[in-house]
Prior knowledge:
Number of domains of chain B: 1
Low-confidence stretches of chain B: none
Distance between the termini of chain B: 46 Å
Mean pLDDT of chain C: 88
Helix content of chain B: over 70%
CATH topology of chain B: ABC transporter involved in vitamin B12 uptake, BtuC
Low-confidence stretches of chain C: 1-5
Largest sheet of chain B: 2 strands, antiparallel
Oligomer: heterotrimer
Mean pLDDT of chain B: 84
Radius of gyration of chain C: 19 Å
Order of helices and strands of chain C: HHHHHHEHHHHEHHHHH
Number of strands of chain C: 2
Shape of chain C: globular
Strand content of chain B: under 5%
Number of domains of chain C: 1
Helix content of chain C: over 70%
CATH class of chain C: Mainly Alpha
Number of helices of chain B: 11
Distance between the termini of chain C: 20 Å
Number of strands of chain B: 2
Radius of gyration of chain B: 18 Å
Structural class of chain B: mainly alpha
CATH architecture of chain C: Orthogonal Bundle
CATH topology of chain C: ABC transporter involved in vitamin B12 uptake, BtuC
Strand order of the largest sheet of chain C: 1-2
Order of helices and strands of chain B: HHHHEEHHHHHHH
Strand content of chain C: under 5%
Shape of chain B: globular
Largest sheet of chain C: 2 strands, antiparallel
CATH class of chain B: Mainly Alpha
Number of helices of chain C: 15
Amino acid sequence: MMEPDQPVDPILSVDRVTRRFGGVIAVNSVSFGIAPGTVTGLIGPNGSGKSTLFRLISGEIPTNTGEIRLRGTAITHKPASVINRLGLSRTFQLSRLYPQMTAIENLVAVTRAPAREASARANDSLAFVGLSPVADEFAANLSYGQQKLLEFARVLMNDPDVILLDEPFAGVNPVMEERLCTHIHALRERGKTFLITDHEIKLIMALCSRLIVLDHGELLADGDPAVIRADPRVIDAYFGT
Amino acid sequence: MVTLVQVVVSGLLLGGVYALLAGGLTLIFGVMRVINLAHGEFLMLGAYASFFLFVRLGLNPILSLLISMPLMFGVGWIAQRLLISRVVRAPLLTSLLLTYGVSLALTGGAQATFTNDFRSVPFLSGALNIGEVAFSVPRLVACVTALVLTGAAQFFLARTRWGKALRATAQSADVALACGIDIDRARMIAFGIATALAGAAGTLTSFLYTVYPEMGKTFMLKAFAVIVLGGMGSFPGAFLGALVLGVIESTASYVTTTQIAEAVIYITLLAMLLLRPQGFFGLKEA
Amino acid sequence: MNSRATGTRGVRIYTGVIGAVTMAIALVPVFGSNYTKTFVMQALMSCALAASWNLISGFTGYVSFGHSAFFGIGAYATGIAIVRGGMPAPIAIVVAGLAAASAGLLFGYPALRLRGPYFAVGMLGVAEAIRVGVTVAEPLTGGGKGLVLIPEDVLTVAYYAMFAVATATVLVTYRVATLPVGLRLLAIREDEVAAELNGIQTTRLKIGAFAVSALFAGLAGGIYAWQMSYIDPGTVFAGSLTVRAIAMTMLGGQGTVFGPVLGSVLLSGISEALWAKFPFLHTALSGVLIIAIVLFLPGGITQILQDRGWIPRSRRL
């Protein structure tokens, strides 16, 4: 484990990033860096800018100002597919699978392994998340929890270094929750970096070694979960009411 | 200088008619997020209605609007009720293919019923000279009629109860539903009005151009160019877009030929789609 | 599931039927009359157009209303290469195919940046603009009066050439569908943003599929021009060519390998048997058919066969 005070080159850094929608500033000059091999929570009330920040980092929408770097390389204006190929992948709050394609096809479609190995790789991924029995079901016919797991498996297909999980626990039953947490721990042990948003504060506190709090598009607090929890401003904005 | 004024004037007169046609198209898109590819065929039906009322009963095309517009409203109402309502919540491409099918069915039906002959309505001719600028009388009458009808539609949308219901449905069908608006009926009204406007545009084109079963296609593309210029779903935008397109077309056909002018419109459409797909006043995409 | 066994038998019957039909088509020039040859060649042309339309529109969901543009470009490139360039027909047709593919790249690059419905209407505009362009470029194309090629009796050769193009289109579709690239194209149809965010290079794939689609449509147009030895803008840029391709593909099943084949066989047969007696109803019936499929049968015949368990849900079919 890294000493907390020892400076490490961040694998992902967000540098004074701003994004407006019309007159509304959704993300206002937010900066932070994420150390490799860590699990960080990104929390904040609804509309605080978490989702927008995810869309900015993954390249779905462009930033107005500021820079985002992955392993020191600026990815700010790169197409989303290129950012994914550089090793950053995300899930969605509401799963965005390919509904009229089977579970296995959902994985084969995104793999960059040679065609010959594609289905073997996809089968391994399905087995990893325990979805082998439903390999040939259409994604649209899977249960909500299964869809979340399939999307998780899809994110892992190309072995990304940085994984953004957008509310992975929302609406998921305790058994699935447990499974997902185990996967995240296992992957972190293998050096993967996670940035997770969720409203399940208990789970986030348990999973994350660091919390970043957004409020009204601005960075409100950043640090150790226990300290964050005691921060009166955070309590006021988030834990309060 | 006089030629320039002349070209702009005839472009604006043309634009008035386009505004009438495009207003309906943009209304349907605004309320239902459906691109109605059969819109040109509704224009064609309106044109035939006026043609037959003129030939058989000698009815003045402008007066025939009193008969054809309610009729076309009914056609639109039924089309919405039987067909379009089934695909409103489906992906945009589904409704696109459906209305494409409607467009073909109407064109083919017209070919079978009315034959492929070119018809025309010999109504009004000559020009009105103001200074050195000549106003073609048929175009002037068509433009004024179009403006009156567009204005009436705008008034309906802005001021009446059902107009407000339509705009609420356009903003958010779910919220409108929660507020107790009968959105199915609002949609039928919207489609009916749009169809009636298209039919009226057909009446006006019947004495400006020739009437034939496939006439709708060109007009549909022009109307689409107009609403892309003005912004999809924006009624005032469609009005301005129509005037702009009218002037572009009349300038292009003055400088080159009418055939090339047609190509210029399609190129304008493509350029606009690529450079500013939200148009000048368009709805923002989520 | 016991439907799996039925499924395998279903596949055998299905592929058997396809094999038998292919053999029959190959033998038509040997035994068939000129009428039969012309009719089957027409069906093969429809099949090539439907299958090539399916490559872009069925797989990626980018519905093109301007497919006839590439058929027309192929026809005119062939005509111009033969009449003005003195090229031998087979070379002219290959050149024409490449010209259509280049046009696909040229128009696809900007047009495919448009989201689905805008692309659809945009392509309608492209096709119209090209038709007008060809009509206006009279010194080169002969304008609205059309272009007369050197008349030759090439029906049998042209027949086999069209057969080859139709088969090649279907084989390419089969190859695409059985590789991950086919699933990537389908992923674009399902959720393009998610596809892009998953590292699928959507723009490149769409343009590639569009160019291949245009290539086959262009080749079909070239062979048509060669065999007819007369072309005019109204015929080779006719919107009805696109309509047939769309109706056939939708009937058979979009985004499947054999859907367009099934659709073109059925519709060609039906239209010859029935609609030929009522030519004036052709457009109307195509329209009604499209409406009916959209409302009641969005997956086409392939889906019915799959729902009944007669053939398995395999992307190979």
